[in-house]
Amino acid sequence: MSDKCVVMTTFSDDAVGKAIIHSLIEKRLAACVQVQAIESYYHWEGAVNHDHEKLVMIKTTTDLYEQVEADILANHDYDTPEIIQLPITAGYSDYLQWIASECK
Fold this sequence. Notes:
Layout: E1 4-11, H1 14-26, E2 32-44, E3 47-61, H2 65-75, E4 84-87, H3 93-102
Antiparallel strand pairs: 1-3, 1-4, 2-3
Helix pairs in contact: 1-2
């Protein structure tokens, strides 16, 4: 199993997103955070919703996942935010080493 991962979350409020991102980077819980505009369709509280959100892809280590999750929850405004960990099963070795060196 890889010791590097990508954690994904979403946000709709830019101030919330910036708080999450800056907290993760400043605490060295993430080596890199990428943000992309997306449209989300989902069921919530009995209704189908369509929102414009930002998808956040956080490059980190599996050892830090619980801290990353806690930090997202501490800064997020959603009742049930998406927080998903995806393993990095392969990648350019220099980049993977960089992730390890940036995350503390």
